[in-house]
Amino acid sequence: MSLPTFPVRTPDTGVQRQVLAESPELMVVSFRFETGANGKLHSHPHVQSTYVARGKFRFFRDGVAHDLQAGDSLVIPSGIEHGCECLEAGELIDCFTPRRDDFL
After folding, report:
1. DSSP at 1
2. Which residues contact 22 (CB under 8 A, 6 or more apart)?
3. Among 42, 46, 59, 73, which one is least packed by beta carbons within 10 Å?
4. 26 Cβ contact list (under 8 Å, min separation 6)
5. CB 99 within 8 A of CB 20
6. How much is the pLDDT for 1?
7. Residue 97 burial (CB < 10 Å; 0-12/13-18/19+)?
8. Cα separation of 10 and 33, whole Å?
9. pLDDT-based confidence at 2, cuts 50/70/90?
10. φ, ψ at 36 (rounded to 5°)
11. Which residues form the Cupin type-2 domain (predicted)?
12. Domains along the chain with CATH numbers
């Protein structure tokens, strides 16, 4: 049985997004950032967890800055404004519950 391969998207300059796995209840997504790229401030109804696979990032969650590096993680509750700045090129592995249908 072959698993589906999802396309790589470029939602912002210096950012690539690829869905790794999904079901209606949960989605796993890779975000690859170039140094200096930003994940624009936004909010959504999904609960999100972010794991820094490599690189360094400054996250903004509900107006508070958090500096994260490889091995760190952060949970973003539903409806909270958040975004990030990439301080050193890297990759984030994000999980969303429920699935982000807008990413499919």
Report:
1. -
2. 6, 28, 99, 104
3. 42
4. 95, 96, 97, 98, 99
5. no
6. 61
7. middle
8. 10
9. low
10. 90, -10
11. 31-88
12. 19-103 (2.60.120.10)
